[in-house]
Amino acid sequence: MHDCVIHIYVIGMPNTSTRPKRGRRNRRVPREDPARNELVSRSLESAQQCLFNQDYGTAFVHYLLVLNLAPVLKDFASESFRFTLFKWADELDSLGRIQDLFDCYEQALELFPTDEVIINSMGEHLFRMGFRDEAAGHFHKALKLKPDYPEAKENFYRVANWLVERWHFLMLNDRRRNHKYQQAIQKAVEGGCNTVLDIGTGTGILGMCAKKAGAAEVYACELSKTMYELACEVVTANGMNGRIKILHMKSLEMEVPKDIPKRVSLVVTETVDAGLFGEGIIESLIHAWNHLLLPPQSTQDPSRPPSQAGRVIPAGATVFGMAVQCLEIRRHHRLCVSEVGGLATAAAGELHSPVSCSSEDDSTEPYTTERLSRLPGGYTPLTEPFNALDIDFNNVQELEGLCSREVSRVRLPVTGEGLLDALAVWFQLHLDQQSSLSTGPKEDTCWEQAIYPVQTPHNFPLRPGDELIVEISCRDAYLRLCSVAIARDGREFRLDDCLDPDIPRNNPGPSGNPNPSLNAEAELCSALACLGTEQSSGPRDYTMLECAEMALLNNQPYHDSFRRALAKLINNLKDARSVQGQGLEVMPLTDPPSGPMDPGPDPFYVLDVSEGFSVLSLIAASQGQVKAYSSVEKTQHQAVLRRLAMANGVPEEALEFWLNQVEDEQAVLQRPSREKLWSSIILDCVETCGLVRQKLMEKATLARCLLEDGGQIFPERIVLYGMLVESDTLLLESAVQGQEPTLGFNIAPFINQFTVPVHVFLDLSTLQCRHLSDSVELFILDLMNTNANYTNRDVKVQASASGRVTAVPFWYQIHLNEEISVSTFNQDSHWKQAAVVLHQPLAVREGDWVRLAVTLQKSSISISASIEEEGLLLSQAKWDEN
Ligand code: 44T
């Protein structure tokens, strides 16, 4: 007998914006209650009627009632119920009624708690709203319920990185690091620190070290829900259940005695990021000293036993910096080209990446992270490494004083010649007096360095003899390093004028009143001269582009290829029109005609649906006789395009902004004029991370229907290439390799649930790996004929060397037309590469044939590899010939 739970159904009703209590009333309803049956059938009818009328909110409420009253109908109505839920959720989403939206999902999940489609869909909403961790949890759950559910798989693989960040694998695989921490903890515990708190425990490894070393009481806290749950599983699997108390909370919220009974004698933590302070270690330790730790060993009374004094592992850190020239960094943070796709870029105005430590803007981060040793094209040090900061984690006054500390200025002798692109930062973590870890670029470590890019629009050629002046400060708990000036021949040139108007200028001479001494200097170093002569009148306007958008804009070969391909298409279409005698047909460029008496020939309509900032529409418009529609959304970005249009002689009416995406069928169908179709639709088909864009083939199918005769989708085809490699690095980044690196603790099987077979954002040119084959074509996606596409393909590739195939890196050749293509594996590319890591390494001998079974489901790729047996190979070869 079912208990029927009836909710207060006004939740989520259309036009009810206040959220009623989530009260429940339990009503026992006899099974064969005719009144109930009547209610059920009437409600079901209403639900269906509302659904038909597209009144999804009311339909949803009726369905809830029906299914709660009559669970037997669940099978029958599940499809319509889901459909209603998704439609209603979309509506709530667009109305901004977020709480109502999630209430609806919660109610749906009470009815269908193991419905992977609902769980996955809720994950998508969570993801769109920025709750990535929670979203990823939902995808993971959906996938556990149905391991081969493609939508959930694709979603999960795309977000697993947020759930369990990839560095967990690297750090757990780093035996040296684990061992050093273990030794330091063991020494401290054996020295008398017997109550321990592990802040940010992750998988619980440091807490387990403390317990194993004999600590009487061990507590651990972890703010990520996924990591907390993992830590609980791991601790239990290692027989320490109940011996370590794990709390799902941020250390800052912990209190004595509420969460831990008394203050502890040791805090262990590795809540440090590449920039040291980015995970909030300063704040956490200040709080820990004030609320969770015993007082420190005092110099006045050194006799206090270690069990009565507090201390922290790591004991402190030393931060280093170094100025570098690096083209790879430059092209992601600054506009480097004066011309792209035939357009002069000067009129774009100042463009910045969102990484800047001199900006007050909340949307910027002070640094980004890179592994310097893996940057394509390498880097050139311009200074020696310098000591930027020393910090003692056992001194709470010092921690508290850090942010109020004066900005310190260092003068660094320039030792190398080159352009100043960034300051790179790393640190030594002093675990205790004896032992430390380094995250330096020369270290044999997988750790990344913090990169503080120089954002000024000019290039600064530095040379030995110059001095670089760097300001070091700590603001909002971030360490900030800012190159402020260059001293050459006794003169200082400020670099950050354009960014920070508050800093007094050394050479404020307005251009009408040139500073004579500066003019002399300007002759000496022309590249620097422009700095001091520019007018400064308050903050300069700049436009923000994402790093990938900046690199795209700097990608000349791509834009030039596109321009040529488009020119060819337009020519072909012109020819076709003149053959059909339509070349004389006169149509206005705008609707209605706005002025010119001779509106010229009928334009060609081009639609660019690239995501983010794209100048392709403008390149199209600059061809003449083209009316281009851009899907650039941000007003600032549109303004850049308008400025570029004006400066490049593109008439205003030749470029319009098309705010809706192709997936919005309704919008696309409102094409330029009823009888007009698009001459070209531009799809950006590969994401920067190296994966095919989601829903690409659906978009292509839709786009094809909207093309005029002879019109074209750009690109028309993409070809996926790959190769066999042996790469331990990729293995270490994807899964914990057994118990050995993790000090004998059993962690791998738990964290490896979050292994993702596809690695993204890979720099294949610098990946440490052995090539075990030539590159081979894996897959073709034909955008002009989506019916011609397949989802599975077997590819044979011969091993060119013996070894263990651990991964198949892949990239794309993007064919704009028959002749013109660009590769995503290219020095100038703004794209990174991706790789499938094989489930199990495959041993090959030179000459072996390897069969790769490639699957493209939705837009996620999977590859499995096996050795092709000789007999099979023969029959396969024969079969292929037929
Ligand atoms: N970065 C690796 C590691 N947490 C970042 O939720 C570090 C890369 C790396 N939990 C150079 C150097 C390095 N209370 O699971 C996370 C996080 C959690 C907290 C409770 C708190 N106050 C916090 C703060 C963070 O701690 C775990 C680790 S933090 C990130 C480590 C050598 N390149």
UniProtKB/TrEMBL annotation:
SUPFAM superfamilies membership: S-adenosyl-L-methionine-dependent methyltransferases, TPR-like
Keywords tagged on the record: Cytoplasm, Methyltransferase, Repeat, S-adenosyl-L-methionine, TPR repeat, Transferase
Extent of Basic residues compositional bias: 19-28
MF GO annotations: histone methyltransferase activity; protein-arginine omega-N symmetric methyltransferase activity
Tagged with keyword Chloroplast: no
GO cellular component terms listed in the entry, alphabetical order: cytoplasm; nucleus
Presence of keyword Transferase: yes
TPR repeats mapped onto the chain: 116-149
GO annotation (BP), single: methylation
Localization per Swiss-Prot or TrEMBL: Cytoplasm
Region (Disordered): 16-37, 351-375
Protein arginine N-methyltransferase domain mapped to chain residues: 382-475, 768-862
Catalytic activity entry: L-arginyl-[protein] + 2 S-adenosyl-L-methionine = N(omega),N(omega)'-dimethyl-L-arginyl-[protein] + 2 S-adenosyl-L-homocysteine + 2 H(+)
Domain of life: Eukaryota
EC number(s) per entry: 2.1.1.320
Class of the enzyme per the UniProt entry, highest EC level: transferase
Protein name, entry field: Protein arginine N-methyltransferase 9
The organism of origin for this protein: Oncorhynchus tshawytscha (Chinook salmon)
